[in-house]
Amino acid sequence: MENKIVYLNGDYLPLTEAKISVLDRGFLFADGIYEVIPVYQGRLFHWQAHLQRLDDSLAGIRMANPYSSEQWLALFAPLLDASKDQYIYLQITRGTAAKRDHAFPENTAPTVFIMSSDIVPVAGKYTGIKAVTLTDSRWLNCHLKTIALLANILHRQEAVDQDSMEAILIKNGYVTEGAASNVFVVIKGVLLTPPKSNAILSGITRDVILELAAKNDMVYCEDVISLAELKSAEEIWVTSSTREILPVVELDGLAVGEGKCGPVWQAMEQLFQAYKQSLL
Ligand code: PDD
Fold it and tell me: What per-residue confidence (pLDDT) applies to 96?
């Protein structure tokens, strides 16, 4: 295991020395939230939006944010390496109580953990990936970025078992999102993504793509996507902070469009990379 330096509850220490109690509510109940922030050459990408979502997730599970934005940025700084692309993973749990009890403990300090990891380019980024559709078995608070990811994990593993990289989740006949990503499709030349709701995580990459589409006069719409529409789409993409914009070229064993990366993806990929460069 790479013994990098991580942050845990006020200290910077080697990963192998970072330990929490077995009574931590994150361990016992998955009672916590997390964030993933890309860092390109030492610069945090859209950190304001990520810290806003952190605030929203904390409020959604009735926890206070232990730090101000300035304090978070100061905590990240020693973990960053300007010579590469990384992402910050941060997790806050409701802390360690004296005993296991579902109800919130009183006066418990949160557990705060932060680490950085290298962004590893995804195999298939320029050739496209395979995805499968699965019934979305998750709860009604998917807009909160909680560490309770068991349903997402089972969906993703089901995709991997079917030799695919991502699961596209379907709820009541409509696309919600990927197991760890948002979904875009191109239908009759129009770029579509499901609207924000408690059925999806409001992805920061998703927002950036919509802003770039608007600025560049691309035809786009936030609207529901039925399973039938997904299956007949010219292009499908899945998007996230760690994987950026991945074109799906095979869905449930069938070619998407012409079975290769589509022209709208190519245009958006160029805009996205140029935008990233402009922020460095
Ligand atoms: N996941 N939806 C889900 C369920 C996700 O887990 C993610 C990202 C997204 C995309 O959000 P963003 O563009 O802000 O990364 C949508 C992260 C990367 C993870 O769990 O590692």
Answer: 98
